[in-house]
Design a protein that fits this description.
There is one protein chain. This protein is α+β, with helices and mostly antiparallel strands. It has 2 domains: 55 residues; 169 residues, Aminopeptidase (3-Layer(aba) Sandwich). The protein has 6 helices and 12 strands. The strands form 3 sheets. An 8-stranded mixed β-sheet has the order 5-6-7-8-9-10-12-11, with helices on both faces. The protein has a two-stranded antiparallel sheet with strand order 1-4. Strands 2-3 form a two-stranded antiparallel ribbon. Helix 2 crosses helix 4. The protein is elongated.
């Protein structure tokens, strides 16, 4: 017999996920039978039970879907508009290209080490994330992910109990002066508040005065890391989410 159309089966599963996310009122869904052959898939019978929704549809998925609600336009004040959005796996090459444009000082301030390049494996680890535990927002040109330049990245990595979350941020020097660092860090604070995270923190080199000044401006407390005089720990308790 001819092989079943695997792409059609995959598409049916993806569309089923969209249906569950878009309509949280769906409590049960039974498709029986679902025929699959070389011509595609066909549902011969289906039964759906609905009820008043008590939660967001995406909350029921085992893997959190792409959080499109976090996308926003960012005006630079000089007529240009960039897109701030969650990172996606396709951003790997663009992230490597963005790293190659950083100065030695920018690399040292972000990674605390004189890295020469961002490997494919590291780029994959930074872009293929679990949105439920790790959020990374990229400031990019509008266009196809992977083909659009990335100019800034801010990420937040949560502990399993959401008591603590570590943040990191880097903005290309050529875009300084537009308040992007302030905007990205404020966005991370808002996101942490929405997630119910108890405290966010980050490690900053003691000679990175620009970053320390920004953190103090937004209410972070600063303390010296024990055993490392060259690192300052900045921390903040996000405001509780408004009901």
């Amino acid at each position: 017999m001819p092989a079943a159309d695997i792409d059609a089966i995959e598409l049916a599963l993806v569309r089923l996920s969209y249906l569950i996310v878009d309509f949280p009122e769906i409590q049960e869904l039974d498709i029986n039978p679902l025929l699959a052959d070389e011509n595609g898939v066909l549902a011969l019978d289906a039964r759906v039970r609905v009820a008043r929704a008590t939660s967001n549809g995406a909350d029921r998925l085992a893997i959190r879907p792409y959080p499109k609600e976090l996308e926003e336009n960012v005006d630079l004040g000089d007529g240009r508009t960039l897109l701030l959005r969650p990172i996606v796996p396709e951003d790997g090459p663009a992230l490597q290209a963005a790293f190659s444009r950083l100065s030695e000082e920018e690399i040292r301030n972000r990674f605390f080490a004189p890295l020469k390049f961002l490997s494919h494996l590291t780029a994959a680890r930074f872009t293929q994330i679990d949105y439920d535990r790790h959020m990374a927002l990229v400031l990019t040109e509008r266009g196809i992910p992977g083909e659009s330049e990335i100019h800034a990245v801010v990420r937040l990595i949560e502990d399993p109990d959401r008591e603590l979350a570590e943040f990191a941020i880097v903005v290309e020097r050529k875009l300084t002066g537009h308040g992007l660092g302030t905007h990205l860090l404020r966005r991370v604070i808002e996101y942490a508040s929405e997630r119910g995270i108890g405290e966010i923190y980050g490690d900053v080199l003691s000679d990175n005065e620009r970053m320390l000044k920004l953190c103090r401006k937004l209410g972070f407390s600063c303390s010296r890391e024990s055993g490392d005089a060259g690192v300052v720990r900045v921390s903040l308790r996000p405001p509780e989410k408004m009901q």
